[in-house]
Each structure stands twice: as C-alpha cells, then as structure tokens.
Inverse folding.
C-alpha cells in the first residue's frame, strides 16, 4: 500500500508540473488593496497605471479572512490581476451580496466569487447577469443558477480520495478506529470531498479494516458503496465542522467524551482541511487514551506544514491558489479578447447547467516529502526547522 501512496504522490506532482504550464501564467506585478466590507483599491509603487487599469473592471469576493487560505489567495490575486478590487464577505451571505452589488455599481465587468453559501449566492449571480456581468465561481461551485459563466476548481473528489487513501495506506489489520469529519453543509465542495473519501474508505469499512466511531449514520450506510446527495447530507450534518476550528474542537471533544477507551488507542482521523485538522488532532492528542493519530488535511497552510514536520499532522493536500488564480486570469483575458479560455477542460453541473470548468492538479504532502515541496513551493521555506513565508 505504501508503494501505491508513493506512486500517487509522484504521479500528482508530475501532473502538476505539466498542468501548471498549460494555461494562465500569472504576472509578477502587484497592486490592489482589500477591505472587509467595502472596496479599497490602491496600486503599489512598482505597478504601472496601464497595468493596474487593465483589471480595474474585475471584482473578487472571498469568503473570510478567518481561514488562513484566503489571505494567501489574496496575494496571488494581487500579483496576477493588478487593479482588481478584492473584498471579503466575513463569513456572511448578506455582506457577500452587498459586496457583489457594490462591484456592479462601480462598473465591474467580471466578478470572481468564492461563495460563503453556494446556494444563497445564486441570487447575487442572477443580479450580476442582469447587468451584463460575467461571473466566475472560484473553488466552490455556486449552485442552482444558469448564470455562472465559468468555474475554476480542483478535482475535489480526488482531494477526498487522496485523504482517504493515506488513511488506508497506514491502516494495520482490522478494527482500526476511524473518526470522520467534514466541511460545511452549505459548501458543495464538502460533499465532493466526502464523496471522494467515501469511495476509498467504504470498502475498507465494509470489510472491517475500519470501524466508524463517531457517526451512527455513516456506520448504518457502511455497505452502501455510492451515497446519494441526501445520504451525504445526513452524514455531513452529523460530522460537520463548518470549516471552523472552534466547531471542530467542540465536536471532537464531544466524540471523545462519548467514546470508550477501547475506541481510541491508534486513531485515524478524516479531517477536511488544515485549520480544522489542527484543532481536531490537538484535541485527540490531549486525550490520555489516544496513543497515535493518523490525520488528514488540505490547503498547505504554514501552521499545518509545521505540524507535519513536527509529527502532529500526517498529511495535507496542496491545491495551489496560484494555479487557480492563473486560470482566472486566463478566463478574464479571454473574455476581454472574445476568445475561448484555454484552461477549460470539463464541466460541473450546478443543478441548472453544466458549468465550463477547470481541473487544477493536486500535490500530496507528507513528512516524507514535506521539506522538498515546502522549499520548492515559492510560498515557504524551512529555516532552522521552522516553516517561514518567503518574503
């Protein structure tokens, strides 16, 4: 099984090398500022007014600064789309709608939205469409509207499958204690991540390799290879973290308080992303009956990379926002030139249409390869055993 894991890592890294060069190379210029609730647009001294003006009709709405991924993504947007306005929704759908309306009123021709609530965001997309504005759904697919023009994303099912495969590769014998956690029910990606994880874990649950310790609903469906949306929703509703570390910690504490000592020992934790993974694994590590933890994550955050080096988190899936942002730039440039974007390779159905979409590559990071990947990432480096940002 370890051979398969190493093959998966190498294959994904090789694919990333070729796919990254495939479309939408980002520029090195930087500009724009950001604001939590209103537009703030300032150009840096090393960006020409012509460059800044090129993307001044682009608006970007990110969900929250509370998750460490999004300020990192902001930096990538600033480099690739100088002059664009970047706003945060602060985890609030009403603020998100206000942000979109503000961008429309200021003349935005293309708006990039990473929705706080994938279904609620349909209303603001429809409003933008009525004003002739193109909408790019970023990372999370906006649901139930025909007015999403493009979707830039990773293979979210593959993310969950890679997380699950890591747990499978490290399982020993039968009866291994499995604790399941998921993202937010309002985020379509949470369903895709769990769908991918279930496709790998379910056969190993059915044959007794794993025993689900914290979800009675998932356990009742252990012989169901493919879950429908309703079944996924029931499970996710029972194990949701809402992408919030505090919620994840509280849920993990409740799970451990209910579990008996013989349901602990060596545990396998399907954690949905890095921020929740650290909260969950810290909680498990504090339990005297937990002797070893295999835990997953995603997002390649600085704190979790340090946890991986220190042996506190087992793995993460790196989904490079630089690649997604490069795809956004390719789409924006193509819209401006009345061309078809070169990075569109597939479609995703959002309940109303098949949305033209990208599928960016993934990189699996474990303690075995973390040092080389960190030092070659362009984001961080290791200095005296510490993961530090590259200035």
């Amino acid at each position: 099984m370890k051979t398969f894991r190493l093959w998966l890592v190498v294959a994904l890294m090789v694919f990333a090398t070729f796919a990254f060069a495939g479309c939408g190379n980002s520029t090195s210029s930087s500009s724009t500022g950001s604001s939590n609730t209103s537009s703030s647009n300032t150009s840096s001294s090393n960006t020409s007014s012509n460059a800044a003006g090129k993307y001044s009709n682009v608006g970007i709405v990110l969900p929250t600064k509370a998750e460490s991924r999004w300020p990192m993504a902001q930096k990538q947007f600033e480099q690739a789309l100088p002059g664009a306005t970047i706003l945060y929704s602060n985890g609030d759908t009403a603020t998100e709608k206000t942000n979109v309306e503000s961008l429309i009123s200021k003349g935005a021709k293309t708006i990039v939205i990473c929705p706080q609530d994938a279904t609620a965001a349909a209303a603001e997309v429809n409003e933008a469409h009525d004003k002739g504005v193109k909408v790019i759904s970023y990372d999370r697919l906006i649901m139930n509207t025909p007015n999403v023009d493009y979707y830039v994303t990773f293979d979210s099912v593959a993310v969950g499958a890679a997380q699950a495969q890591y747990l499978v590769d490290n399982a020993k014998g039968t009866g291994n204690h499995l604790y399941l956690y998921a993202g937010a029910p309002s985020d379509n990606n949470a369903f895709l991540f769990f769908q991918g994880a279930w496709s790998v874990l379910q056969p190993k649950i059915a044959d007794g390799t794993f025993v689900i310790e914290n979800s009675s609903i998932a356990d009742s469906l252990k012989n169901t290879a493919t879950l429908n949306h309703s079944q996924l929703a029931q499970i996710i509703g029972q194990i949701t973290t809402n992408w919030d570390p505090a919620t994840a910690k509280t849920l993990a504490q409740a799970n451990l308080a209910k579990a008996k000592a013989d349901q602990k020992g060596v545990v396998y934790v399907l954690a949905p992303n890095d921020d929740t993974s650290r909260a969950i694994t810290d909680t498990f590590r504090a339990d005297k009956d937990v002797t070893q933890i295999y835990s997953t994550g995603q997002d390649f955050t600085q704190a979790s990379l340090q946890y991986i080096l220190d042996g506190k988190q087992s793995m993460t899936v790196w989904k490079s926002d630089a690649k997604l942002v490069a795809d956004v730039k390719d789409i924006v440039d193509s819209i401006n030139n009345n061309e078809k974007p070169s990075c569109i390779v597939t479609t995703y159905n959002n309940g109303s249409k098949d949305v033209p979409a990208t599928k960016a590559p993934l990189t699996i990071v474990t303690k075995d390869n973390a040092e080389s990947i960190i030092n070659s990432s362009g984001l961080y480096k290791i200095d005296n055993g510490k993961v530090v940002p590259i200035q």
